């Protein structure tokens, strides 16, 4: 039998005590400022800049071949993120890639991350902390500098 207590909990709504107040809180990141999560606007700007540069390189050296553009994009992402922690677009957007423990991503993680990014789908499926599957797979995150 349904009691008044059952209805009261239903009327109060679901338990939201485990839900984060802002993206990145569960990962221990600050809400704003340096070290906070790189939000969608910065990420989109970064990828547009990176793709535009790769298109320019592809047009100059490979006649605009779409596979060459993708290969240049892969190389840029893997090499720059693996060594510096950021791509050209990330640098302009003031974000960089780190592992969840705060260290650099490194070459192996950057190679796999870049490959998954080139597949597009893993990058557009995101969690509550705005991390794409490519970041979750490599235990990386984009944060503000």
Structure description:
Keywords: Cell membrane, Membrane, Transmembrane, Transmembrane helix. InterPro entries: Pra-immunoreactive, RDD, UCP021697. It is a multi-pass membrane protein. This is RDD family protein. By secondary structure, the protein is mainly alpha-helical. The chain is built from seven helices and two strands. Strands 1-2 form a two-stranded antiparallel ribbon. The protein is elongated and about 75 Å long. The termini are far apart.
Number of self-contained structural domains: 1
Q: Could you state the oligomeric state of the chains shown?
A: single chain
Q: Tally the helices.
A: 7
Please identify the structural class as seen in this structure.
Answer: mainly alpha
Give a quick account of the main beta sheet: strands, pairing sense, barrel closure: 2 strands, antiparallel
Contiguous low-pLDDT stretches (5 residues minimum) are none
* Annotation, overall tally of beta strands: 2
Radius of gyration: 19 Å
- The backbone outline, from C-alpha atoms, is elongated
Main location: membrane
Protein name: RDD family protein
Organism: Arthrobacter horti
Domain RDD: 67-138
């Amino acid at each position: 039998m349904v009691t008044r207590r059952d209805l009261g909990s239903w009327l109060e709504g679901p338990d939201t005590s485990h839900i984060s107040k802002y993206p990145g809180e569960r990962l221990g990141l600050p809400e704003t400022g340096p070290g906070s999560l790189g939000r969608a606007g910065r990420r989109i700007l970064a990828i547009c800049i990176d793709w535009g540069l790769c298109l320019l390189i592809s047009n100059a050296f490979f006649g605009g071949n779409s596979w060459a553009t993708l290969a240049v994009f892969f190389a840029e992402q893997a090499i720059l993120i693996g060594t510096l922690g950021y791509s050209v677009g990330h640098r302009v957007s003031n974000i960089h890639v780190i592992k969840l423990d705060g260290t650099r991503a490194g070459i192996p993680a950057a190679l796999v991350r870049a490959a998954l990014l080139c597949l597009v789908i893993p990058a557009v499926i995101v969690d509550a902390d705005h991390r794409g599957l490519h970041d979750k797979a490599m235990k990386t995150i984009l944060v503000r500098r």
